[in-house]
Design a protein that fits this description.
The complex is a heterodimer. By secondary structure, chain A is mainly alpha-helical. In chain A, 35% of the residues lie in helices and 8% in strands. Chain A has a domain of 28 residues. Chain B is α/β, with parallel strands linked by helices. Among the domains of chain B are: 86 residues, no CATH class; 40 residues, no CATH class; 202 residues, no CATH class; 70 residues, no CATH class. The longest helix of chain B has 36 residues. The chains are: A mainly alpha, B alpha/beta.
Chain lengths: 62, 777
Amino acid sequence: MENKEMNEMLIGEGVGFERIRRITGYLVGTLDRFNNAKRAEVSDRVKHGLSSCCSASEQHTA
Amino acid sequence: MVQQIIKRDGRKAPFELDKIAGAIFGAAQASGGQDYEMAAELAKLVEQALETELKDGTPTVEQVQDTVENVLIKNGHARTAKKYILYRNERTRVREMNTRLMKVYEDLTFQSSLENDVKRENANIDGDTAMGTMLKYGSEGAKQFYEMFILDPAHAKAHREGDIHIHDLDFLTLTTTCCQIDLLSLFDGGFSTGHGFLREPNDIRSYSALACIAIQSNQNDQHGGQSVPNFDYCMAPGVKKTYRKCFLRNLERALEIYRDVEDEDLESREIFDEVEATSGLQPILIGTNGFEDKLTEKLQESFDDATARKITAFCRRHAIKETRRTTYQAMEALVHNLNTMHSRAGAQIPFSSLNYGTDVSPEGRLVVECLLLATEAGLGNGETSIFPIHIFKVKEGVNFNEGDPNYDLFKLACRVSAKRLFPNFSFLDAPFNLKYYKEGHPETECAYMGCRTRVIGNVYDPTREIVNGRGNLSFTSINLPRIGIRSHGDVDWFFEDLDRKIDLVIDQLLARYRIQCSKRVRNYPFLMGEGIWMDSDKLGPDDTLEDVLGHGTLTVGFIGLAECLKALIGKHHGESDEAQNLGLEIIGHMRARMDEAAKKYKLNFSVIATPAEGLSGRFVKIDREKYGVIEGVTDRDYYTNSFHIPVYFPISAFEKLGREAPYHELTNGGHISYIELDGDPTQNLEAFEAVVRYMKEIGIGYGSINHPVDRDPVCGYTGIIGETCPRCGRKEGEGVPLSKLKKMGLYKNLNSTTIGYNGAAAEEADRRPNTLKIVKE
C-alpha cells in the first residue's frame, strides 16, 4: 500500500513547457526572455501556408 | 528686499543678486554681449519685479527664472532672453535625466526581469544576475553621459525623440560592432588571449576548443557578435592532423602485437617518419595517395607480405574510426562550450555564428556532418542549443543539386533545421553575392553574422572584397513610419524628409567613426592586438585605428516599412503592388544615398534591414503618444521588422518570400527573410526543402524557416506541444506519475537542474543517428 503511494508520486508539478522561437535571426532560451514588444509580435505571427502557392512551389515539391 | 528663495527640493537658500546677474551675463555672452554692468542692472530690475509681485513672500526658483525671462523681453533683450530660455531648458533636461537615471537604477535594483522590460531589452543577457545588472547600470549611465556630453545635440535630440535610433549607444566611445574571424591565420603559430599564450593546435579537439576561445576573446573587445565565415575550411586541417596522429598510434599498437621479441628496436615512430620523409606523403582520410603502399613496402622489410598488408589495413581502419569519433566529440564539445562559456562578465554567452557547407574536402565534410549531428542530438538533456547560429552556405555545383559533392550535407542541414531551427541558409548564387565569389577562395564566399549583418564589398580598399577580418563599425536606424505619418500622403515631402534624416545619420555615423578611429590597438588586445581585424597586424600597440577601421561598414538601418506604407498610401507591400513599388523605391533611394556617401567619403556606407530586438517597441511607443492610435500603423506594440510583410498578415510562404526578395539586393549591409511553417516540418522534409530551394531561386540572400520548437522539461519531449505533452500527457504545470515516466523508460538525470525525469525516452533510445557515411566505420 505504502509502496504504491510512492510510485504514484507526481513529477513536474508547477513546471511549464519551454518554447523556443526565433527572435530576429537568432534564437533565445525561451519566450519568457523576450521583451514586451517582441512578445506581442510573436503572439501575432500567423502561419504561412504552402498550399495556396503558385506553380513555382509545385515545381519544387515535385 | 527679497531675502531668500525656495529651492526645488523645498529647502530655503539666501537670495543672491550676483547669481542672477551671472546667469543673465552668461546668456548675453552666448548671443555676443559683453556688458556685465548691463546684466547687473537687469538683475536689479528682476529683484524689483519680484518684490512688487510677491510683496513679502519668498519666491521659488521657477518664479525667479520666469521673472528673468519677462524682464529681459520687456527691456528689449530678446536674443539674450532666447539664450536664457534655452539654457534653462537644458538645465531642466539634465536635472530630469539625473532623476530618470536614478529611477532606472532603482528599478534595475529592486525589480526582477519579469517586471522590468529594460532587463529583457536583449533576450540573450540575463538581467537578473549580479553581473547582468551591473552591465545594465553601466549601459544606462553611459547612454546618459553620451547624450549629455558627447553626442552632437542635433543627433542626441533626433535619437531622444525617436526620429532615429543610434544602436549600441552605450558603447558610443568604446568599440565597434562585430567581426568575421579567420581562424586559420589566427591559429598559425599560436596566439595569446591577452591572459595567456596558446600553441598552434594539433588535433581537431584543440581546433574546436581554440575556436571557442577566439570567439569568446573577440566578443569581449566588441559590442556585437562574432562570426566564423569559413568554419569547415578552418577546422579541416585539425581533422587532417588528427587522422595522422590516429594512424601513427595504431601503427604503434599493431607493431606491439606483430613484432618479434628480438625486434624491440622496431619503432613505429621511426618507420612512420621515414616513410613520410622519403615519400613526401601523409596518410589521408579518404582515397589513396600512395602513402599506404609505401608503408607496406617499408613494413615488408621486417614482416612477410601478408602481415605487412594486415598492419597497414589495421591502421587505416582504426584511424578512420577514431578520427570520426574524435571529430564528433570535438563538435559536440564546441556546441556545449558555445552555450555555456561566459563573456562580458558572465551576463552573456558569446554571440557566435558559424558559416559552412562549401568545403568539399573529406575533412571539411566530416566536420560539417559531425557539427550538424551534434546539433540535431541537442544539449545534455536534449535541449535545442541557442548558439552557435549556424549558417549553411548554399551554392550550385557544390551542394544544391543531386550529384553536387556536398548535396548530402545540404539534405542533412534541412533535416537538422527542421528539428532545431538551425541552420539558417545563405545563398551564394544570389547575384549580389555571386559577384564576389571566386572559386577556390573561401574568403570570397559571402558570409552572414547570425542576426543578418553582411560585410563583403569594400570601397575603402577595392582590391580586398573579402569577408575575413572585417565587420560592421556601427549602425543607426531611421523611423520610417514616423516620416510616413508626418507626410500626410504627400510622397514628395516624404522623400524630402527621408533625405534630411539620411543626411543626419551620415553625419552621426561619421562623428562616431572619428571617435572610433582615435582608439588605439591596446584598447582591443585580441581584436587588434592579435591581428584579427584586417591590417591590424601592421600596427603597434600605441597606434590609432584610423588606417584600418575603414575596412568596416557604416550602416543606416530602418524599421517598419510596412507601417510606413500604410501611413503613406493606406496599404502595405503585402497587400498591394502599388505599395510594393513604393516600398522598393524608398529602400532603393536609401541604398542610392549610401552608395553616394560611400563614393564621397571612400568609406563602406551601406543599408541594413535592422534586426531590431530592443527597437521593435521603442519607436511605436513614442509615435503613439505623439500621433495617437493610427490603424495599421501605431495600433500594435511593435513596428514590423525591416522590410518584412507584417507577421499578422495572411499570405502564402512563397508569396511572402517573393515580395521580400528584391529588398535583399538593396540592403547590402544585411538582410534576412523567414516564414512561419505550420505543423512539424520533420514529418515533411520535402516541403521544408522546397521552401529553401525557392529562396535560392528568387534571389534571397539569407533566409530561415520558423516552426515551433517546444520542450517538456519533465519527459524531455522536443517538438510541437499544444496544451498537452504528446509524450507524457501532462498539461503545463501538471505532474506526471512517477510510474508512468518509468514505464516510458525515462531516468532521472543526476546532474539535471530541472525537476523532472529527463533523457531519451525508450522510443528514442534505439534510434541510431542517421549518419551520412562520409567515412565508413
